[in-house]
Specification:
With 159 residues, the protein is of the alpha+beta class. It folds into 2 domains: 46 residues, no CATH class; 100 residues, no CATH class. The chain has 3 helices and 10 strands. A hairpin with a 6-residue loop joins strand 4 and strand 5. The N terminus is likely disordered.
Length: 159
């Protein structure tokens, strides 16, 4: 199957939903070629899904979006010596998924860097939306604390 084969809108929506369900979701996914009306096989749907992953775009998120500055804070957990990082702000695209991505170190640094990454795929909706993400710091603490990294700034937090 060529990747430029047109598929129905229902197929694209079904594939997008199957992406979160894994391989089991692909078996249940169904669609048809718009040109011939032929049902697509599971292998053809997998190929379309793999191609759609290639169009995914990820980058560091800006701290200042739409005049609002994102905030990061560390809150203690219920159990002694446990902490959570909470980052909240605005994202430039409504369908952008935001994740907190800790860097990997060979030795424990003074401040462990954690990047705020925004990913989009498919059609981008240029509408500002809010986000709030949490990360357990049990495995990601530097000797002195953490450093949250945005595209346009950094914030050090002592723990």
């Amino acid at each position: 199957m060529s990747l430029d084969m047109r598929v129905s809108r229902r197929t694209v929506l079904t594939i997008a939903g199957a992406a979160g369900a894994g391989a089991a979701g692909l078996v249940a996914a169904e669609g048809e070629d718009e040109q011939t009306g032929r049902k697509l096989t599971s292998d053809e749907l997998k190929e379309i899904l793999e191609h759609s992953k290639e169009s995914r775009s990820c980058r560091l998120l800006a701290r200042m979006v739409d005049g609002t500055k994102a905030k990061a804070q560390v809150i203690p957990g219920i159990v002694n010596n446990t902490f959570f990082l909470v980052v909240a702000g605005k994202k430039p695209f409504l369908n952008m998924s935001v994740t907190l991505s800790p860097l990997v170190y060979v030795r424990q640094p003074d401040y462990w860097e954690i990047e705020v990454v925004g990913c989009t795929s498919g059609i981008v909706l240029p509408v500002v939306g809010a986000y709030a993400e949490t990360l357990s710091l049990d495995s990601y603490r530097g000797k002195k604390g953490i450093e949250v990294v945005w595209a346009d700034g950094r914030q050090r937090i002592d723990i």
